[in-house]
Write a structure and sequence with these properties.
With 238 residues, the chain is of the alpha+beta class. The protein has three helices and 13 strands; from the N terminus they run αβββββββββββββαα. α1 packs antiparallel against α3.
Length: 238
């Protein structure tokens, strides 16, 4: 086996692996929505979660089968040591205090397991009828103290219109950096992608057929390229 054969085989393998990883990640993200912006690069001391302080983020589930919540945490670039509790509450329409909603999920983890400015995924039991319902993500850490406490990333503007951040029962003009994910079939994910790509787009950009043809041409070029690479390897072996 020549150096040229090894090089072409390596290139082909890397391309295939890259496409597979990209495709898998894209398909998974189609089932997730939320508010991914984090401009809270330097959280203040007042934003720490400790003692009796409860903070929350409300959201409206756009789909059924809610099965995961992801949050971006801030550690103040230190190792914090106390437990943090995350709760998911369902908020009925007649609930005056959202923190008194119906608990659908709860988990406790230690702050020392968090990395600064990183996402943490929380897998929850599927909620089959979640679509259209309002939920509240609640974080508390009663044993934490100032200087040994974490907070969440987010943005100090209410950019996520279906929900808002809370400090205790009081809404504040801010939003966590969060994602909510849903169990979906591949067909449902493709339908969502089509809606996202064509919504309020002018001309051909709002036509799903245009994107279908573009994807077909892209796949065709990739297949021809792979065929050419394989032929070069086979000829080199011969």
């Amino acid at each position: 086996m020549t150096v040229r054969t090894l090089f072409l085989g390596l290139c082909l393998s890397l391309i295939l692996i890259g496409l597979a990883v990209t495709g898998y990640s894209t398909i998974n993200q189609l089932a997730c929505e939320g508010q991914p912006i984090n401009n809270n690069e330097s959280p203040t001391v007042e934003q720490q979660i400790y003692g009796e302080r409860l903070i929350g983020q409300s959201f409206v589930a756009p789909h059924n089968y809610l099965n995961q919540i992801s949050l971006m945490f801030q550690t103040y670039q230190r190792r914090n040591t106390h437990d943090v509790t995350l709760r998911l509450l369902e908020i009925p329409a007649d609930t005056a205090n959202p923190f008194e909603g119906i608990e659908r999920f709860s988990t406790t983890f230690n702050a020392s397991t968090l990395r600064d400015k990183s996402w943490r995924d929380f897998v929850i039991p599927e909620i089959a009828d979640s679509s259209g319902k309002t939920y509240l993500i609640v974080l508390a850490s009663p044993e934490s103290v100032s200087g040994d406490a974490i907070t969440v990333g987010g943005i100090e503007r209410n950019v996520y219109l279906p929900g808002t951040a809370y400090l205790g029962p009081v809404p504040v003009p801010a939003d966590f950096a969060f994602r909510t994910c849903y169990q979906m079939s591949l067909t449902e994910k493709i339908h969502i992608l089509t809606q996202q790509m064509t919504h309020n787009r002018p001309g051909v950009w709002g036509n799903s057929t245009f994107y279908g043809l573009t994807i077909f041409l892209y796949v065709t070029v990739i297949v021809l390229f792979f065929g050419f690479m394989i032929r070069l390897v086979v000829e080199d072996k011969g």
